[in-house]
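Protocol step 4 of 5: obtain the predicted structure for the target chain.
Materials: sequence only (see below). No template structures provided, no constraints applied. The aim of this step is simply to have a reference model before the mutagenesis design in step 5. Sequence pasted as it appears in the construct record:
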Amino acid sequence: MRMLQTGFCRWVVSLMSALFVFTVWAQQNPPDNRQVRLTSSNLPIVFLNVDGRTIDRYERITARMKIIDNGPGQLNYADTLAHPGQHIDYEGYIALRYRGNTSYSGSPKKPYSFRTLDAPLEDDGQKVKVRIMGMAKDNNWVMLAPFADKSMMRDALAFELARPWMDFAPDTRFCEMMLDGTYYGVFVMAEAVSKGKHRLNLDDPGTEGDELTGGYSLEVDRTDEVTYTSKHHPVNSRGRNLNNQYVHIQYKSPEYDEMTPEQIAYIQGAIDDMEAAFASRDYKDPVKGYASKIDVTSFIDYQLAEEFAHNVDSYRLSAKFFKRRDSQDPRFKMVLWDLNLAYGNSDYYQGWRTDTWFYQSNDIMNSAGDTQLVPFWWYKLNSDEAYTTALKQRWAQYRRANFRTDRLMATVDSMANVLTSGGAEARNSLAWPRWGQYVWPNKYIAVDFDDEIAHLKQWMADRLTWMDAQLGFDPNALLTGDVTGDGIVDIEDANAVIKLI
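Step 4 output (structure tokens):
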């Protein structure tokens, strides 16, 4: 056994060393930008300066950031000397590191996490909240680096579609980035899922009374951070326990090493209580069951967003949820994150299919030896007729609003136009040539950007058709009272009738 442990440890050390070497190589061997010349862009231009230092996955380093953003409809120029007077959206220090899991380890174009600072870290720089590209003030930001997602819009698209329905969905902006004078392509500047006033708006938890009950942000994910192991195993498609499998929950805010023993005990107990309600015989009871522990509409919105995207990471990886203080709302709520492998972009676990529910995918993942499975909550929810009835009703609301087919396609076209009209997509493709090439885990290998967008739209259309059939929605049926044709019945319809009369 000691020999096995020693061998495993050596393997881990070798793997970590290899990842470190790859990271340094990727930074020292930037994209093939010899053909790329960024003079102007319709997208904001982000200049990062690390003075050649190696960016780390875990430890933050001081960097300088400058963002040129002249606003919608205006060009942004990379040569600030030749084009003085441009709007500097932000210029200052940041605490920078790499972020992500497979998007970090499996891609040469790496995503970043940064916090805005009032001074360098070495000078005890403190976090400072700023607006970036018109998004609400905060100090916690990420730059997503779409690589396997050749449309470069899947995360931004998912958040945009969810925003009218969920408590919080990250705001995003496309931008182009230069690192130490080298062009690195198109990135997605995004709000982090964090506790800020304009984000999850969570209070810092106290150590007693109502203050102890919130706020907490958590995430079903891997065991690469300190986790709490669920007392309940995931289940297969028949609802039977997979006794050799476990669900792990990470502490995101506060982080584990920032929490007091009272806070750790409280939030673990709250998770236990929620799961016990799901596991009880009375789980369907609106008072004794799960409905008293979770915001059912929030869970429905999460499921519809993830299932429409057929996201292979949904429910089991980056599955974020949070809890406010009991005096505000004692129920757990869900948050979207990490959909770059969604919308038919994955060739594993049948992520490319349009005719299955992903919450039922534990069978195929378990047989493949995957240890990150869907928590049993989702099986229980979808075994409750009251929940599935509400799910169908909510889907009908979606489909009459921004999930209406023409509006969905218009949203995709709008994002595609932003990426192409100023040449950003073409420059990114020169720096990172991928067309006609397999990039893990692509199922469809597009020959160019137009082909990728056409495939994405067709996939979405096919997914809508299947989900409509499963959830009993007729897209051709008229909504009584919807005079304006906007998919809802409201005061505008009444005003239209009065005007007509």
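Step 4 remarks: Residues 259 and 367 are 37 Å apart (CA to CA). The two ends are 85 Å apart (CA to CA).
Proceed to step 5.
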